[in-house]
Amino acid sequence: MRTSSYRRVASAVLVVLVVCVGVGVGVHPAAADPPEEPDHGLNASEFYPLWSHDVDGNISLNETAIRTLANGTDISYLEPPEEVQRWNQQDLREFPETGTKTSVYPEGTETTASDRGWITDAYTRLFAIQPSTRAFVSGSRQPLYVPSKGSILATTDYRVDLPEDDTTGSVRVFYDLNSASIESVRAVSGARTIGTTAPSQTVQINYSDLQSGPHSVGVEARIQIDVTKTTKTKVCSDDGRCHWETETEEIDESITVEDTRLVEQYSLLSTGYVTQYPDGDMGVVTKQNHPWAGLSLPENDTANGVWRFYSGRETDWDSLTKTNPDGTETVSSPAQPLQVYAYPSTSQAELATTESGFSQPEGELLQTQGEQRPVPELPASVNVDVANESYNVSSQLAVRHAEYEPKTVEVRGLVAGTSRELSPSFYTTVKTRATSLDVEVINATSSTLRVRVELSDEQGRPVMTAGYDGRVVVEGTPVETNAAGTAIVTIERAEKGMTAVYEPASFWKRNPAYTSSSASFTGPSSFGGNLWMLFRLVLAALLLWLPVYMFDRMLDLDIWPPWEGLW
Q1: How far apart are CA 269 and CA 397, in angstroms?
Q2: 481-509 tens-digit pLDDT
Q3: Which domains does the chain have, with CATH numbers?
Q4: Where does the record place the DUF8186 domain (predicted)?
């Protein structure tokens, strides 16, 4: 699927070039720029599409195709790009190391100090939670979806600011820093510890057992210093002799800092039905508790919901504030984390294929159900196609496919790594049977027909429609069959052929399910019908023999009447 996405991306490069060059697009200054070259093991096709939240329009014909496209617009994905996780893990190592005299933190970070102020500019800051996806569900609802098990990347820093030594007077005070360290780091969800790791300035904490629903998730770090305070007091006797008395005090100063983010635990708890049609086709319907991406089907086909993805850097990390005893300065950040975003790109779900060329998916989208919502507004720096005005969240999709291989069907989530196969524990297997429909006219008048219909399955067993969504429609008149599979209905008479059709309920609405069937019938001849038949025969005879008669009269061919001489 990713390969197909890149192929479509590359094919769009020429269009972007023509448009951008034609309108004279120039370079626009940006407050901060993403990294310019592939790094951390990512190749060009993996690296350049990741950097939305930049200023588009910097087009150069000297660049590679993928870089030119990424500079000119933003590139979307059919599934959450896993390259984001690889980048973040490696890029966290680029965060600058500092000593006890310097603290470095993302611009805008709230720092704090210990009670005595000896530990200052202290903080911890979430670099990334992964895998995760920020979903633009609506203008007011944009949850950060995370799985029950993942990892949290974070940075922690501080600096030590001890009082200056007092080296004058009869009482002199000296401060010596014995040790300073980040004593502990843990991942928290409310008051619960959900993960720990060895303390460091940059950490990756693997967490687990995040419960369902919204949570405040973050990192808590404890910073501690050990200081020896030495007090020297000059003591003089009456005879004028003086000496220094020394008193030492070991002081432990500590502070706890934290950074949290509101998240919503994401897991696919799908339920649904699977069936095999009599012709061998597979039917699948699934419903999800969260917004979801769609279904992966056999033969590289997909049933895609409305959701697409893009990756953008967290712009809070564009700049770092660096503080030390000499002052404060702002520097460019060498570490820039990425975040995956999901947005509604179409109004409705669709069936597609990842095969190259002009291949078409081998199936059909039977039904889409879900709440209709207004399209949320994306950040101004993001240039991707979004749905018009409103979209269907497509919480339920029903698909028919030419290959019956339910074990290969995969439900795709909005968060990387959350896709899962259909689980027999949550899916009901439905038997779908073929049907036949028989129609018999049991009474007729000049204007009506009394018709008996009989609906049965492939083994001759009656099919009842009463109490189900399915129905039999006889010349536009709906009727329900009883437990014997029969129904009687009176309809208006028509001399032409008439039709009865069985419109079954969807396979996920009854078990066993049934296929559609139809039957044609005609009523017995009536007096009016016989007159009409006679008129048509006379008209046909006139149209056939009138030209012969006219030619005989005009040309004296002596062939009229044509039956003369037959006896």
Answers
A1: 14
A2: 999 999 999 999 887 889 999 999 999 99
A3: 1-75 (no CATH), 434-521 (2.60.40)
A4: 94-266, 271-422, 433-520
